[in-house]
Design a protein that fits this description.
20 helices; alpha+beta; Butyryl-Coa Dehydrogenase, subunit A, domain 1; Butyryl-CoA Dehydrogenase, subunit A, domain 2; homodimer; two-stranded antiparallel ribbon; 12% strand
Chain lengths: 592, 592
């Protein structure tokens, strides 16, 4: 069975030596002293290794079972969920006014990585609650907040998000679920929603569904959509549970992975709901939490791959097969360990260099969200809004690829379910699809985010890269291995942007045909920037006489690998983008 | 449920307009007239669509079940297997002396693609028999051939290959299975083999296991290995079945995919076996059929993806979601079909341009095998030996990627097992692993095949590319879109080869660190060459006044896409190769 150990040392490095959290001046960051964050991460790591990780295979094997309208989660999930609540882990970065611990979002993100790595399907029950909490927290009335938030912060009640219908996925404007206003101010919600994660389960006494539906008078398409709170059990004025609402689970989907999470078809048969936020402004209410939700999915992409990587390393060190081409390294054994072979290392270095870059990128984005929320920094908000589709699309694509690479290290054993590597691949696959399929992320990036606020945020990003290169220009240790490749990659990104500007206006397809490549190109530049920063921090530690030279030297070597072997992808992405719309759009639909 | 239609028109195009099979002068190719091959392919396509494809999901869902030592295949597999035998499909390209139809290998390959696309797991039962047949056909005594081949040609008996042991996968030298010589000339085989595809099942009355084992006196490592025929039931002199042999199935593996094929742990407890080929030359006997076996797996890689692609196209045409950015294309409907969106097309074009290139590459390789076997052409044999690891490694990696892309077109529905797209991904995954994991293919290519016969075969390949470019230099229709990019890609491949020559001698790791990238670089150049040839053939048809302009124009447009958007990958692969061993080998094992 796979194991998992939280990479707390790598996390501490990002928090304290790359992001320098305590020196940012962001309100609430002052408590993030090294000892404090270490204690939190270690404690989370203990829960992850001892409670969550052992249930990961159980969840995959048993899945969720629907019997007489009740969904049974896999054996042990209820006890683990109770332990998570008991430890206060569900409330870490939530509002103290409703029982949360008020910690910074960047800490919630770091702890989130740990829990997702250990058991992605399990963690979704609280993850979705977090999303629903955020929507109510931002858009709810005081009464709604008082009614729902304390129970959601503690995870006594979980939350869900109901968007998709059978015929309306990305195109929510076509949805048919109706909301009819009632005399008492409530609405009757009627319709069917699909792909509802954690839609029904036996972990909590109540489930708070947030449901997009069309109320009369809103007009066509997405304009008519509003957001409603539809609890499984109605809540009495005193906070106790009242009548069962007219919402029920139709079936559980048989999925490729994340079997431990119940993905439900939900039927609303005149269920009682209350408007959340403004009438006919449901899309806006949804989108306010989109950045965080998508960041959460990007995190899933690399967090599952991190667990896969850890096991691949263990296997590569243990499994004896063949001899090193440069001479036997394990003369007393029947063969050398896999890890001596250059192509196994190539594979592991691909994984490691991606994962550490992805973590830095994600923590940085979380820190930008903190800056935007806690320090009211509009520039940080604009920047993270630009980076969100990159983070979601790039990290989930590369995360899946990384999980596949980790599986490959096992040879035939990787294909056997017993070893657990298949599950990582199957679980990681969903992150490329949900919360906006990655093609939609690319569209969001090129079609909306690039030009947002007059293109100001992408210019800010370029300045950030340029300034870093300039500031460190005299740093000989960084120049050749980091700054030069970063400069080249960033130039490719700018050239791609120029291509879109020049051609996208007369032919939008010229930009959209290259959108997916642009998302990946952007992702590589972000990870290149992260690695340049990490290398700088590591070099400073070495120059400062650290005793832990192995750790910091490994950081620099891993960064060099990324710059030398991953960053050259930007040239290929640019070449594809520059080929424009013609090759992509040449065929008629019947020529496929 | 997914559907499948054999792409007979595309196959005919490759056979008759690209490879010009009837004009090659290869013995037996004269019968491959257009009408004849069309009739064969259409008939195979009918069986595939009507009999095999409907069982694909059944096989995945039911899997194989072991009860009291008997493996039950999924419902309907026995009837379908009988239909395959009845139709003579198992004997297509086998030796007429033993009941085969003696057709060219290239035809067996084309028909094989059709059957694998329709149902990969099912087709493995006869595919493995084909491999075991080949070993006995080449290395068996006359008596062995008479005893086993007729029944294997008809698939009254199936065959298996037993190589792997729990601790010995790629490194077969460590195997422990023993063969003790008996007074009557037979051997007693004792040991455990794992990952044995079709190791036990209920489709036939007998199973002929080919087993690698160590007989006394052979020395250490792979030198001591011999190959043995171990039938499930011993065969009496009159051909009737005798006693049950001491071979049994220990368990069936729970796998990520190909559930319809029984992957068995096989226990040999003093089972009676007969030496096949020379004593202690078992590895050589295995390797004589390696090229074909690996070509067969490369074919699986793209054939499964072909089925996934076909369904993705249907879905993209049918599913209404969003509006075209350049203006509504389906004004009478609530939305436009997915296929109007540039990024969906980018995805579908990636799939299509790979699949058609892969088919041409595979048919070409099969044709080289025919040339080598039927026309005794040593150069063709050398060339296909060089290309085999490229074909296996590149086509299975890209085939898996293609299946994932096809799944992505479905959005959330792609993740639900009901739609069948997950199965294509899960099935395609194994082809990257078995018959030598793709890292081993890369090692074989760079460590052995490149330098084979003084590097003569890779030089022959370069000449082939160079000659094609030179011959068509004045062809304006090909120049910019095909010849120029092919020349650039081929130059990258040569530069990579030069890097290995210059650095590989003093440091083998410098070559091996780039081996995987070299395999992919080589694959792209092969597909680039195929596309240049296909474009030329299509252009000739158009110039000749064909009435089917849509088909040939689509070929050229699809080729242009590949050249413009896939071939630029060669530059990135070269950059990685040129970065050498240092980034790959920098860390010590404990720094991962």
């Amino acid at each position: 069975m796979p194991s998992y150990t939280a990479p707390t040392k790598d996390m501490q490095f990002v928090l304290h030596e790359v992001l320098n959290v305590t020196k940012t001046g962001i309100p609430g960051y002052d408590e993030l002293e090294r000892d404090f964050t270490e204690a939190v991460l270690e404690a989370a790591g203990k829960v992850a290794s001892e409670v969550l990780a052992p249930l990961n295979v159980v969840g995959d094997t048993q899945g969720c079972v629907l019997e007489n309208g009740v969904v049974h989660t896999p054996a042990g999930f209820d006890a683990a969920f109770a332990a998570m609540k008991e430890g206060g882990w569900t409330a870490l970065d939530l509002d103290p006014e409703y029982g949360g611990q008020g910690m910074a979002y960047v800490m919630g993100t770091a702890v989130g990585e740990i829990f997702v790595s250990a058991n992605m399907a399990f963690n979704m029950y609280q993850g979705l609650t977090h999303g629903a909490y955020a929507a109510i927290h931002v858009h709810g009335t005081d009464a709604q907040k008082r009614t729902y938030l304390p129970k959601m912060v503690s995870c006594d009640w979980t939350g869900t998000m109901n968007l998709t219908e059978p015929h309306a996925g990305t195109d929510l404007g076509m949805m048919r679920t109706k909301a009819e206003p009632q005399a008492d101010g409530s609405y009757k919600i009627t319709g069917q929603k699909i792909f509802i994660s954690a839609g029904e389960h036996d972990l909590t006494e109540n489930i708070i569904h947030l449901v997009l539906a069309k109320a009369p008078g809103g007009g066509e398409g997405t304009k008519g959509i509003s957001l409603f709170i539809v609890p499984k059990f109605l809540v009495n004025d005193d906070g106790s549970l009242g009548a069962r609402n007219a919402v029920s689970v139709g079936s559980i989907e048989e999925k490729m992975g994340i079997h431990g999470n119940s993905t439900c078809v939900m039927n609303y048969d005149g269920a009682t709901g209350w408007l959340l936020g403004d009438l006919h402004k449901g899309m806006r209410a949804m989108f306010t939490m989109m950045n965080e939700a998508r960041l959460g999915v990007g995190l899933q992409g690399y967090a599952v791959a991190e667990a896969a990587y850890q096991n691949a390393v263990i296997y590569a060190r243990d499994r004896l097969q063949g001899r090193a081409v440069t001479g036997t390294e394990n003369p007393s054994g029947p063969a050398d360990p896999l890890i001596v072979h250059p192509d196994i290392r190539r594979n592991l270095m691909d994984q490691k260099s991606f994962l550490e870059g992805a973590r830095a990128f994600t923590f940085w984005a979380a820190h930008l969200i903190d800056r935007s929320h806690r320090a009211d920094d509009a520039e940080a908000e604009g920047l993270v809004s630009l980076l969100t589709p990159v983070l979601k699309g790039f990290l989930t694509d590369k995360g899946f690829e990384t999980a596949v690479n980790a599986q490959q290290v096992y040879g035939g054993h990787g294909y056997i379910e017993e070893w657990g590597m298949s599950q990582f691949v199957r679980d990681a696959r969903i992150a490329m699809i949900y919360e906006g399929a990655n093609g939609v992320q690319a569209l969001d990036l090129v079609g909306r985010k690039l030009a947002q606020d007059g293109g100001k945020h992408v210019m800010a990003f370029f300045d950030l890269v340029k300034d870093f290169i300039k500031e460190n220009d005299s740093n000989a240790a960084l120049k050749e291995g980091f700054l030069d490749p970063l400069k080249a990659a960033s130039k490719d990104l700018q050239a791609a942007g120029m291509f879109f500007m020049k051609n996208g206006m007369k032919d939008p397809n010229a930009a959209l045909a290259g959108s997916y490549d642009f998302m990946h190109l952007f992702g590589h530049v972000c990870l290149g920037l992260m690695w340049a920063r990490m290398a700088k921090a590591a070099q400073e530690a070495l120059d400062g006489g650290t005793s832990d030279t192995s750790f910091y030297e490994a950081k620099i070597a891993t960064g060099r690998y990324y710059m030398a072997r991953q960053l050259p992808m930007t040239a290929t992405h640019l070449a594809r983008i520059n080929s424009g719309a013609a090759p992509v759009m040449a065929l008629s639909a019947d020529q496929f």
